[in-house]
């Protein structure tokens, strides 16, 4: 690179704004220099937490370069303006582009792309598939366009899974619903899977296009993906992030007839059922808490309900693991664990891999206990399939994609 460039990464929610700055240095390294979060935008309880990783002299910051300010921020524009005030204290800051996390790209936006009027129109069009996410993502784009007159790039959660074959993404519904409404399986956490695919290939010293793996992105939101030749061939989430694994508050796979049963016997409307399945189910509904750490601790202490919730969660994860072993015909280089639970829960990793030696999956309990923040190989020496803990970094991936798109279009 001829000069150092920085990318601002934005993730706009309905009442929040998460941001980070990555510097692309001349020698080819990438360094995160800023991270921040604005919460409760549009309320009297709004606040901003900003952290400089360079030690920039920010008014009101503590010795670690962090500042937290409770202040009323009326909308996303005001929030980003406030964050920008802090960013401008960074030395030699040159924002070359802004990368936006966008949840749903549908079938028309299947790769990271430069944002223009057409792209914004398609993001709006796909809001029907992600009504809670795409509209605030679009607000973030429009605000950033006003404040930063540089290339804006959209990076989609769904795009990584656009390589799924028809038989993997098509539902057993009347085909007309797919043609008319785009009802099919899309998958999510794609930015994480893109990062994990590249990083796992690097760790195994393989070209990404030669990598076959089963990857668990398991945090509050949880999914699993089958990767063949570096591409997604199946994933557990569907037309929305509700399908698939049991999650913190989402139920994952259930019989669709429950919608009618709950209407008939509990008087719940479709909207009520949607709220129940997305916000009141999963670990929360089974155990009373959405925190896997608490569930594991209570289960170890003999709490039967927590023990059941944990077993239900693991049972569903192993069900998908078995299916994807079949999809990949047993030709798997690695099982990868990532995100909050995947990176931190010794117990969950051990339970998912327990008793799978005949399938070539052998976990070393001592390594599993000792794996640190940077992750590592937790499989036994000689295990045919590696078992890896690989910390994900979706923001870094968005920054990398942003620079790649900018450089590609010239």
UniProtKB/TrEMBL annotation:
SUPFAM superfamilies from the UniProt entry: Actin-like ATPase domain
Alphabetically ordered keywords of this record: ATP-binding, Kinase, Magnesium, Metal-binding, Nucleotide-binding, Transferase
Cofactor(s) listed: Mg(2+)
Keyword Cell membrane in annotation: no
Keyword Protease among UniProt keywords: no
MF GO annotations: acetate kinase activity; ATP binding; magnesium ion binding
GO BP terms in the entry: acetate metabolic process; acetyl-CoA biosynthetic process
Family: Belongs to the acetokinase family.
Name of the protein this chain belongs to: Probable acetate kinase
